[in-house]
Design a protein that fits this description.
Elements (H helix, E strand, L loop, with lengths): L12 H18 L5 H20 L4 H14 L5 E7 L5 E7 L9 E2 L1 H8 L2 H6 L3 E4 L1 H4 L19 E9 L2 E10 L8 H44 L5 H16 L8
Antiparallel strand pairs: 1-2, 1-6, 2-3, 4-5, 5-6
Length: 258
């Protein structure tokens, strides 16, 4: 499923770890019973992950394809979702299966995500949990209905797997059954873990890619300001040059130098 020659093209440490994680995931999943659907899903998982490693994680299409593979491969799953933590600490849905795309507009707090899991300590530890009829047991009675769309209330069983990166929950994959409260078993948990591991590797690669981009931007700013100051001979010209270059690089209309 994966052309290992691509490995030599993967530059950063985090990208190589994501590639290693993919190979480990495929080996584990391929060791289970094989059907045409599972073969197709393994191929999709491989393609999606290699593309994400090559061009950078973050596209909704990549997350969608990863989730679709999980729904087929995890025993009992008929739908699901992935949500990723943003810079403000909230979680945004980046993929859904079995629901409408309006779910992708929903942003929830870390508190709401941990409440959905049901055990704060185990959530922080990245431990999965399964629950029957989650809306009877894991949604507060006074919960704002806008955070729990009507279409999600048909979930009869849920497997929720928090994804921990560098000691912090940075993502979550939910897998749902719409027909059985007894949909998930031990094999479901083992298989879902492989996807959680894969998501963790990709999120880490995305974070490190973002840090590298920010660092390169800092160097770019330093270089441009240095160039602009080359012919500056008074404090006023220096200040104007710094403010001008900073505004341009930050795409800001108003920048003040105190």
């Amino acid at each position: 499923f994966v052309d290992s020659s691509n490995f030599s093209k993967i530059g950063s440490v985090s990208q190589r770890r994501a590639f290693d994680s993919l190979l480990s995931t495929l080996e584990t999943l391929a060791a289970t019973s094989v059907t045409s659907d599972r073969l197709l899903s393994l191929s999709t998982l491989a393609t999606t992950t290699t593309e994400a490693v090559d061009v950078g994680v973050g596209s909704l299409e990549s997350w969608k394809r990863l989730l679709d593979a999980a729904v087929i491969l995890v025993p009992g799953a008929e739908g699901g979702s992935i949500r990723i933590r943003d810079r403000d600490g909230d979680f945004t849905f980046v993929a859904q299966h079995g629901f409408s795309d309006s779910l992708l507009e929903l942003r929830v707090s870390a508190q709401q995500v941990s409440d959905w899991h049901g055990d704060l300590l185990e959530w922080h530890s990245g431990r999965a949990r399964t629950v029957k009829r989650p809306f009877d047991t894991h949604v507060p009675l006074d919960a704002d209905p806008k955070f729990y769309p009507t279409e999600t209330k048909r979930i009869r069983a849920n497997l929720s797997f928090p994804v921990v990166v560098d000691g912090e929950v940075m993502a979550e994959i939910n897998l749902d059954s719409f027909t059985s409260v007894n949909a998930f078993n031990d094999e479901s948990l083992v298989t879902a873990k492989q996807f959680a591991v894969q998501i963790a590797a990709l999120v880490k690669a995305q974070r490190e890619r973002g840090k590298l981009t920010a660092r390169l931007r800092e160097f770019e700013m330093l270089e441009l300001v240095t160039s602009a100051l080359h012919d500056a001979h008074t404090p006023e010209i220096v200040a104007a040059s710094v403010v001008g270059e900073t505004a341009r690089l930050m795409n800001a209309q108003n920048v003040a130098m105190l």
